[in-house]
Each structure stands twice: as C-alpha cells, then as structure tokens.
Design a protein that fits this description.
Blueprint lengths: L1 H60 L1 H4 L5 H5 L7 H24 L13 H11 L28 H10 L2 H34 L2 H4 L5 H17 L9 H25 L11 H10 L1 H5 L1 H4 L6 H6 L6 H29 L7 H4 L6 H32 L9 E2 L8 E2 L1 H18 L2 H30 L4 H23 L7 H30 L4 H7 L6 E11 L7 H7 L4 E13 L11 E6 L6 E8 L9 H24 L5 E3 L16 E3 L5 E4 L2 E4 H7 L5 H16 L1 E11 L6 H17 L3 H4 L7 E9 L1
Parallel strand pairs: 3-4, 3-11, 4-6, 11-12
Antiparallel strand pairs: 1-2, 5-6, 5-8, 7-9, 9-10
Helix pairs in contact: 1-10, 1-15, 4-11, 4-15, 5-19, 6-19, 7-9, 7-17, 7-18, 7-19, 7-21, 9-18, 10-15, 10-17, 19-20, 19-21, 21-27, 24-26
Length: about 775
C-alpha cells in the first residue's frame, strides 16, 4: 500500500509538472493565435475594402468603355454586312483589341506608371520632369527635391537610363519636342471629352426609334441635345450627391449587356465563339482587303474610354481598377459583343440598330432606360477627366488662368471649371446637332482616341527607360507591339478625316495653340524676370531704409521668382516715395508633384541684413493642390515667418555658420550675397542642420522656452506691423515683342498671348486680394 501511494504521488507530481508545462506552452500559443487572428481580420477587412473600391470604380472609370457596344458594329459596317463571315472576323478583332490594349497594355502596364496614384498625360510628364531636367521653365530648386512627395529613383551614371537622361537634357529642342508631344495628347483628350458625350447619348436615345419607327432623326437629336444640356448645366452642383448612383448603374449595365450577350449566343448561333481564333482576323483582311482595313476605324471604338481609364486613375487604387476590369468589365464586354455578333449572323440587315434589336422584347424599355443612364455616366467620366487635365495643365503653366471650383469638401479631385464647362457644352451640342448620326461622330472619336494612345506609348518608352530602368529589349518589344497595333488603327482613321475625322483635329489644334502660346509667353516672361532681376549689391547700397520712407505695415510683393529680387521691385521703389517696414516677396510655385504636404508648403528665407526687414516666402503646390489666397493662407505664411525668426535666433547660438535650414537640408546662400542668405522651410519633421552640427527638434523646442532679446524685439515688431495692415503688391505686366522679333514670335506674343491675358483671370482674382488692400504696379517688358 505504501509503495502504491508513493507511485500515486510520483504520478500526480508528473501530471502537475506536465500541466504547468502545458500552461506555459499555451500562453505563447494563445498569443500567437491572437496575432494570427488579428492578421486574418485585417486582411479580411482590407480585402473587403478593396472589393468595395473596385465596385465604386465602375461608375467613375469604366462608363465610357461600357457604352461602346451601343455603336461599334454600326460604325464597323456602315454600308451593311456583305458576308456573315465578316462578322466573325470583326468580332475576333474586337476581342483581341480589348485583350491587347485595355487589358495587357493599360491595366497591367500603363496603370503602373502612375505618379503617386495620379494618371493622365501630364502625370507622366511630371514623372519625367522629376527624373530628368526637361522642364522648359527653369524654376527648379534643390530644396524641392527633398519634399516627401518628390519621389524618384536613383540613376547610375553608366546605365542606359543615364545616357537617355543626358540625351534628353542635352538640347532644348528635345525638351520642347517632349512638351509638344504632351500638349498634343492633352488636346486630343479634351477633344474626346467633347465627342464621347455626343456619341454616347445619341446612340443611347437612338433606341427610341425602334419602338416608334415614324419618329424622325431630328426628334432623336433634339432629345439627345436636351439631355446633354441638362448634364452640363448640372456640373456646378458636383457629382458628390448623385455619385453614389453611378457604380450601381454601371454595374447593372454591364450585367445586363453580359447577360443579354450570353442569351443571344445560346439562342442564335454558338458558332460565333470561333472568333476567339485569330485565324479569322487573317481571313477578314484577306477577303475584305481595303474595306476590311477601313473598317478598323469602327472597331477602334470598342476600346474608347481606355484613355479616360488612365486619366481617372487618381480616384481609386490601381489594384481595385485592375480587379474591376478583369472580373466584370472585360468578360461582360466580350459576352456583349459576341451576343450581338451571334444575332447579326442570323439578321445581317439589322446592323444599324444591332444592339437594341438583339434585346428581348420583354426587357426592351428597362434596358433603354439603363442605357441612357449609363451613357450619361460615361459622359460625366470624360467631362471630369477633362476638368482634371485642365487643372494639371494650369498648374504646369500650360493653360490660361481659369476659375476652378471644388464641388466636394471630401474629395479634392471633384472640381468644376465654369468657362471650360460652357465651351464643352457648346461644342458638344454643335457636334451632335451638326452630324446627326453616329457614323461621322464615331470617325471623329476614333481619331482622337488613337492619337492619345500613340502619345501614351511614346511617353511610356521614356518612363520604362528613365523611371523603371527596364532592359532595352523589353522596351523594344513593348514599343514594337504597341506601334504596330496602334499605327494600323491610326492609318485607318486617317482615311476617314473627310468623313468626320477632321473634327477632333480642329478642336485639338485650337486647344493646342492656346496651350502652347500661353506656355511660350509665360516662359519668355520668366526668362526676362531672371535676366533682369535686381542685384543684391544694388539693394544693399540703398541701406536699411532702401532710400525711401519705411511706413508701418507689411507689404507682400508677389513674384514668379523663387530666387533673387524681381525687377518690378526696383520699378516700384524708383517711382514711389515710401515702402512698408517689412517686405515679403511671395512666390507661388507649382512643382512636378501631385501634392505638397501642408507642413512642407512654405520655404522662408531672409534677404539682406536683419535690419532690412526683407524676406522671401516660396509657397509650393502640386498639380492636384488648389491655391487659395484667404485668411488661412495668410495666417500660415506669418506663422512660418515667425517660426523662421525663432529658429534663426536659436541657430545663431548653436554655430558660427550661417548656413542652416530645417529637415537637415543645407541651404545655399544667395548667389549675390556673401553672409546674409539664411534660408528656412516651415517644415519641422526631424532635425535642423547647422553647419557641421545636427540639432534635434526636441532640443530646439526646449530651447525655444528662452528667447533672445533680439528675437523678441523682431517678433514684436513684425506682429505690430501685421496689426497695422497688410498690403498686397501685384505686378500688372504687359508683355510685348521687340521690333527685331521673328514673325511667329510676334503672332504668339502680341496677338494670341495678349488676347488670352485679356480674357483670363487677373492676378487680383487669382490671389483673391481685397481691393482695399491691393496695389498694382504696371510695367512693360519686351521679349
């Protein structure tokens, strides 16, 4: 019994040790399980969010591409179908066009070439400007490259990318050629923004005639014009209130056309699926000859909206757009075109109204209503893309100053440009009422689309070499395949210039002249400012009073120069007897980045000795940012100025060197000064560099508790001057050419640029300066 009890005790001891060991093992196991569970929940929530964004992208990105089945087959066979096998060949071309251009080229490749989520022609240009010095207006500064959003990859000196970079930067002609290429593509996008609403809405309401055969085409055109006018008149309200309807409408549209397509395949002819074999493309061209080649202009319409897909990229993550296209858009479009082709094999005489005639009678009216709504959504997508492009062009000095209104407080990308809106409406109504049929508008739209795609291909060559640093063989393969396909389409649409294809060329030519003339005039004015800026020796020779009476207050002198004293300042002080106690030169500068964070917005620098009370403030913006001259802007400017003075005083005690700035950026002194060029940024993220020493911000904040008497006096003086009053001094510059100028320069500057300056917004309207605080200084410059 004793031995048994001893064994039981030993057994229970072993069990207790095992239980304790299990408890110790369970604790990390439970913690690991918790981490895995949290990771699973995060992954699940991110997946749901991605799917939700993919659903929402349907309404913004794919409306234009989804409206194409309304008119593709009619524009492919405007003279009727001569042989049913031609339908199989045309369908095969549509399938492989959708596969190669939207799916392989844009969704998988071009969308990756976004500028921090921003797409479009100007986004690609901005990306190139950050990786190579190709801007035609030389206002770059080394401090701009240290912004958090100024991302660019490192290029090694001996790489092929470095050779390409040096080749681009080697001659101004290549920089201008790159800009011209970007402006051509942008002008064509604006032309497409006029043509897409016209052909989409007109094709959608064309279905009314099927149920009412006696209805004339004039009535259909009138209904389309009424819808278009209503659409443009509602733009000032923004799409924030009704935007939530866009995605369900477009999703319902894709499901309807996909389902109808499957129904028609099963009902009419399953043989249409032979079109997935590329052999029928060869047979189509061999049999059709020139007629088959000319029909490519109609097949080209099946991929319209692809360029808008890239332009509207900023609204959603790339992955969500890729999911939406591969899971919904692509298969539904393939089924829709295949279903129409199956119907046309049995009813070749119905090619004019192929889409509506292939719809089952029981759902005809619901589909007509959804088609009209989808056409409106498609039109809205292209109009929004046009507004976004104009905003980017304006920020890069490639478009006259126009009023930009933000229609949503939540989404900064939702903007409205009144002047452009009414121009688009007038031209869109004129195209719709003037042509009155889908065929000629389709020819015009195809011309605009293929030129935009060619421009994107050429820009992608530079992106792949400079930004991605791809092997030259990959670049050659991409370029060769793209140019073969798009060049073939381009050669076809050129033959239809006299059948409506001239419309986008005329519209694009008009916008191109406007954009380039404005950029050329701005560039010449900037070059004059750079060459005629006042030397610091002259300013220092005037003394602290600047040779004038210094009256209480702060004068904000607006200039385009980020360095040096502008020429207009010398014009000002030689013609007026007094100047303000504090002078701040304000430069509003747009950079080739999509946005500049608020805490990195202002760059402050002192001009001259401390007792001159002169400063420079560079306000930096990206092409998606909106500059607003309001009380908030003014308050941030003065807060940055006060912070600069505090930091300047502290840094004087930290080191004997005067070269310092924020964020560890070593600052260059002014080219015309030796010891008085202290520069600072309003950004305060990490450290401050002073000479050879690095001072942590925490130490500076603690040191800021004790201020020097000089700092207190200057801060108090600035505060008193601000309370006395702030005056905004703007230059009213008239640009003209000299007598020796060439003819083209006189036309561009004296007529086009001068006319644009008269009709666009003035400086006081751009900066929203109250008239009681405004002082205009006029001058005439000859370039």
């Amino acid at each position: 019994m004793a031995s048994k009890g001893k064994g039981d005790n030993e057994e229970s001891g072993y069990k207790s040790k095992i239980w304790v060991l299990d408890q110790k093992l369970d604790q990390p196991m439970d913690a690991e399980a918790g981490r895995l569970k949290n990771k699973y929940e995060e992954k699940k929530s991110s997946t749901l969010l991605l799917l939700c964004l993919a659903f929402q992208s349907l309404g913004v990105v794919y409306g234009d591409l989804g409206a194409s089945p309304l008119y593709v087959f009619y524009n492919t066979f405007p003279d009727g179908i001569k042989d049913p096998e031609d339908v199989i060949g045309a369908l095969s071309l549509i399938i492989y066009s959708l596969t190669f251009i939207p799916l392989l080229k844009y969704i998988l490749i071009v969308c990756r070439a976004n500028d921090n989520g921003q797409g479009g022609t100007f986004a690609l240009y901005s990306l190139l400007c950050r990786h190579a010095n190709v801007k035609t207006i030389p206002n770059q500064d080394h401090t701009d490259e240290q912004l958090t959003t100024y991302s660019r990859s490192t290029i090694y000196e001996k790489s092929f990318a470095a050779k390409t970079k040096r080749w681009l930067e080697g001659h101004s002609f290549r920089k201008n050629a790159l800009l011209l290429l970007v402006l051509v593509g942008s002008s064509m996008v604006i032309g497409d923004g006029i043509l897409t609403p016209a052909i989409s809405v007109l094709s959608a309401v064309q279905g009314i005639k099927l149920d009412h055969p006696k209805m004339t085409s004039d009535i259909v055109v009138f209904v389309a014009v009424v819808i278009l006018v209503g659409l443009f008149c509602m733009q000032h309200q923004g799409i924030d209130r009704v935007g939530w309807l866009f995605a369900p409408i477009v999703l319902l549209w894709f499901l309807l056309i996909g389902g109808i397509g499957i129904f028609n395949i099963l009902k009419y002819d399953k043989e249409v699926l032979k079109a997935f074999s590329p052999v029928y493309i060869y047979r189509y061209f061999k049999k059709g000859g020139k007629d088959g080649w000319l029909s490519l202009g109609g097949i080209m319409l099946s991929i319209t909206g692809t360029e808008a897909l890239f332009a509207d990229l900023s609204h959603f993550p790339v992955l969500s757009i890729q999911i939406a296209f591969t899971a919904i858009v692509f298969p539904c479009l393939i089924f829709a075109y295949s279903g129409q082709a199956a119907y046309l094999l049995k009813n070749p005489n119905h090619v004019v109204d192929a889409f509506y005639r292939s719809i089952p009678d029981s759902i005809y009216w619901p589909v007509l209503i959804v088609a009209t709504a989808a056409a409106v959504v498609a039109s809205q997508a292209t109009i929004s893309a046009t507004f976004s492009l104009i905003k980017q062009a304006l920020a890069l000095d490639c478009f006259p100053r126009v009023k930009i209104v933000h229609t949503s407080e939540k989404f900064l990308s939702q903007i409205y440009i009144p002047d452009i809106n009414w121009i688009l409406m007038i031209l869109c109504v004129a195209v719709t009422a003037g042509f009155k049929n889908q065929s000629q508008i389709g020819n015009a739209s195809g011309t605009a689309v293929v030129i935009v795609m060619l421009v994107t291909t050429l820009l992608m060559i530079l992106i792949m070499l400079l930004v991605w640093r791809c092997h030259w063989i990959i670049v050659v393969i991409f370029t060769g395949l793209s140019l073969i396909v798009e060049g073939t389409y381009f050669s076809s649409v050129l033959c239809k210039v006299n059948q409506g294809g001239w419309v986008p060329l005329v519209i694009a030519a008009a916008f191109f002249v406007i954009m380039y003339a404005w950029h050329y005039g701005t560039m010449k004015r900037y070059e004059f400012e750079m060459h005629s800026k006042v030397s610091m020796a002259w300013v220092l020779g005037l003394g602290p009073s600047l040779g004038l009476v210094r009256v209480p207050g702060i004068g904000l002198v607006y200039t385009e120069l980020a360095r040096g004293v502008p020429h207009i300042f010398s014009h000002f002080i030689t013609n007026l007897p007094a100047i303000h106690s504090v002078v701040v030169f304000v430069c509003v500068k747009y950079l080739p980045v999509y946005t500049v964070p608020e805490d990195e917005r202002f760059l402050i620098k002192r001009i001259g000795p401390r007792n001159f009370r002169m400063f420079r403030c560079v306000a930096r913006y990206g092409y998606k940012d909106l500059h607003r001259k309001d009380e908030k802007f003014e308050k941030r400017l003065f807060d940055s100025l006060f912070m600069f003075i505090r930091l300047e005083s502290m840094m004087d005690g930290c080191s004997d060197s005067d070269d310092y700035s924020l964020n560890g950026q070593q600052t260059e002194q002014s080219r015309d000064m030796n010891d008085n060029g202290n520069k600072a940024s309003s950004t305060m993220n990490a450290t401050i560099s002073s000479g050879d020493s690095i001072v942590p911000l925490d130490a500076i904040r603690s040191a800021s508790q004790v201020s020097s008497p000089v700092e207190i006096d200057e801060l108090e003086f600035l505060s008193n001057c601000r309370d006395t009053g702030v005056v905004h001094i703007l230059g009213n510059t008239v640009v003209t050419t000299s007598r020796e100028s060439k003819f083209y320069k006189k036309v561009a500057i004296d007529y086009i640029y001068a006319f644009l300056r008269k009709i666009c917004r003035g400086n006081s309207a751009v900066f929203n300066v109250p008239h009681e605080n405004l002082l205009n200084v006029g001058q005439i410059i000859r370039v």
